[in-house]
Amino acid sequence: MMKNSGWRWLALCLMLILAVGCTRRGGLQIDDPAPVVSLPDFHGKTVNLPQDLKGKVLLVRFWSLDCVYCNKEMLPALEALYQKYKDKGFVPVAIDVGQYDGKDERWKRFEQLTYPMLNDERGLVARRFGVIGMPTSFVIDREGILRGKITGEAGLDEFEKLFTTVLN
């Protein structure tokens, strides 16, 4: 009987340690520098973030073509915001987490987008950003510092409000 309660006590202590550990910082936090990463775009060109877009305010959106929670219409909507604010230094960056297949017809609807569309085939960059669910979006300022984060889906107005506060 004593051995059994000893194991229970040990299990309870381990659960408490794990619970405390899980509530600590996970992923990027506001005021953290963005990770330095390199990813291919859908044409095979490597883009280095945030260096290649230094001096720009970035809205980095992690999503997946197969994600049922990701609003695919948000990507064309971000194009409209890009056109509206690009002269002020705003650039959205869409990062698809998963395997890209250019033969998949579902990609056709995104061909007209002019902002960076990158591919994180193995999810390594998403992990470096601390993404635990998709979609997740980050606003990174002109110096490469995280200034905002939205976990889950949001409306276009929320995105615009978030990045324009950093842009201005």
Automatic annotation (TrEMBL):
Source organism, top-level taxon: Bacteria
Residue ranges constituting the Thioredoxin domain according to the UniProt record: 28-168
InterPro entries: AhpC/TSA, Thioredoxin-like_sf, Thioredoxin_domain, Thioredoxin_ResA/DsbE_sf
Pfam families: AhpC-TSA
Protein name in the entry: TlpA disulfide reductase family protein
Organism whose genome encodes this protein: Methylomonas rapida
